[in-house]
Every structure is written in structure tokens, then in C-alpha cells.
Write a structure and sequence with these properties.
Radius of gyration: 19 Å
CATH class of the largest domain: Mainly Beta
Strand order of the largest sheet: 8-7-10-5-12
Helix content: 10-25%
CATH superfamily of the largest domain: ZPR1, A/B domain
Number of strands: 12
Structural class: alpha+beta
Largest sheet: 5 strands, antiparallel
Order of helices and strands: EEEEEEEEEHHEEEH
CATH architecture of the largest domain: Sandwich
Shape: globular
Strand content: 35-45%
């Protein structure tokens, strides 16, 4: 049995959202069952004329909100991590956090991959902000990330998912409920309009 099971494929030719030429872009939608993630809709739009390409993975199942916690150590760097587009990823000991936004994407990686993503974000901050305080903080954070990647120290990986679509695939993960007051404060990455 394959690791991913495709259940439905829908292809159509559409107007390209980038160059606006009608009948040239191909839209492919596939419903896929992914282990540890559930059913997802994988979408791809590709235009032969202008080269535009966009892909996304949208979770189709909602579970109970969940907090996934794992101690980061040399032994857990290869542990698989599934982060849904609505999850917040935090490593509190080094002060890094990624919250979902409107363009947030889900991904499958491992603990080291999470650290590498944070490393890239901190390096970008070093390039964007030249003030001394930001430079000092970013260099300290970068050093702490490298210590974690090299297995020289430990920290805590926390994934808060209001739709319970994420996972840390390990016997050592602690899965708990998200308290109601914390749940209300979590960002989901989805825009909403409030009633007045």
C-alpha cells in the first residue's frame, strides 16, 4: 500500500490568474489521504503561457483542538512533524514563534526541518533590520538554533493547532487539550468578518 492514497482527481482548463489568458491554465485538484494528516485537497494551477504556478494543500478534516509538545534533543531531530496551515509553532526557550497568516501553508518535515525554517527566518531578519538590538537578538537566537541542530542542548517544540490537524509522530510526544482562554487567542490564518 502506498503512503499516500489518491481518491479523486479533477482537472480543468481555466483562465490564468496571472496573465488573464482564458483557456490556457490547467487546474488540478486531488483528494489525497496522507498518513498522520488525514484527507487533504492538493491543488495546482499551472499556466503554459506565462509560467505561473501555484500549489496548495488544504486539510479537509477538522479534529478537536490540540497542543503537541516534544522535547527537542539530538535523539528527536529526525522525528516527523506535520504542521497544518492553521497551526502555531513555538520554541519558547529561544523565543521563536510562527503563527499562521492568510498565505500560511501546511507542510510535512522533521524537527530539524522546523529548526532550519526558523534559522532561515532569523537570517532574513538579520538582512532586513540593521539596528543593533535586532542584530544582537537575532545572532543570539541563531546561535541557539545551531546548538539545537547540533544536538548540544535541548528545548521544547510546541505546536498549537485549533483544528487538530497537525501531528508530531513520536511515542514521546505529549498531546493535550488547548485551554479555552488560549484557544480564543490562537490565530488560525483565516480572515473573518465580525458582526457588529
Amino acid at each position: 500500500m502506498s503512503e499516500e492514497e489518491t481518491t479523486e482527481i479533477n482537472e480543468m482548463i481555466i483562465k490564468c490568474p496571472a496573465c488573464n489568458v482564458d483557456g490556457i491554465a490547467k487546474s488540478i485538484m486531488k483528494e489525497i489521504e496522507i498518513p498522520h494528516f488525514g484527507k487533504v485537497l492538493e491543488t495546482t494551477i499551472q499556466c503554459e503561457k506565462c509560467g505561473f504556478k501555484h500549489s496548495d494543500v488544504i486539510a479537509l478534516e477538522h479534529n478537536d483542538p490540540a497542543k503537541y509538545t516534544l522535547k527537542i534533543s539530538k535523539e528527536t531531530l529526525s522525528v516527523r512533524v506535520v504542521r497544518s496551515q492553521s497551526a502555531t509553532v513555538t520554541i519558547p526557550e529561544i523565543g521563536v514563534k510562527v503563527e499562521p497568516g492568510p498565505k500560511s501553508e501546511g507542510y510535512v518535515t522533521n524537527v530539524e526541518g522546523i529548526l532550519t525554517r526558523f534559522e532561515g527566518a532569523v537570517k532574513k531578519a538579520l538582512q532586513l533590520f540593521e539596528d543593533e538590538q535586532t542584530q544582537t537578538n537575532a545572532k543570539k537566537t541563531l546561535s541557539e538554533i545551531h546548538e539545537l541542530i547540533n544536538g548540544n542542548t535541548t528545548a521544547t517544540l510546541i505546536i498549537d493547532d485549533p483544528f487538530g490537524q497537525s501531528n508530531i509522530v513520536s511515542d514521546d510526544v505529549i498531546i493535550s487539550e488547548i485551554p479555552e482562554d488560549e484557544l480564543k487567542e490562537l490565530k488560525t490564518g483565516f480572515s473573518h468578518i465580525e458582526d457588529r
